[in-house]
Amino acid sequence: MEPTSTSFLIIDQIKQYLEIKIRLLKYEGIDKASGIIAELITDLIVVVLVLLAFLFFYRYAGVVGRAPP
């Protein structure tokens, strides 16, 4: 049986489908990874700011609360 042009066309379409599917999976993985990294960076910034605020208020709370000599 000799391959026809329609069988080649179907094989080409399957190859294109698989290439597009693989590319889509890569993009979805990149999207999820970048979302996770963005959340981690945001959480780290919030923790650092809260720590700085805590240290600032802890340092100067004693000065404000003291009675004058």
TL;DR of this structure?
Keywords: Membrane, Transmembrane, Transmembrane helix. Helix content is 88%, strand content 0%.
The major β-sheet equals: none
Overall average pLDDT: 87
Shape: rod-shaped
Give helix and strand order, one letter per element, not per position.
H
Poorly predicted tracts of residues: none
Distance between the termini: 107 Å
From the helix content, strand content and strand pairing, which structural class follows?
mainly alpha
Instruction: Please count the beta strands (DSSP E, at least 2 residues each).
Output: 0
Observed structural traits:
single chain, 69 residues, mainly alpha, 88% helix
Structure description:
This protein is mostly helical and 69 residues long. It has one domain (1-64). Helix content is 88%, strand content 0%. It has one helix and no strands. It has one helix at residues 5-65. It is rod-shaped and about 90 Å long. The termini are far apart. The mean pLDDT is 87. The chain crosses the membrane at residues 36-58. Keywords: Membrane, Transmembrane, Transmembrane helix.
Secondary-structure blueprint:
Elements (H helix, E strand, L loop, with lengths): L4 H61 L4
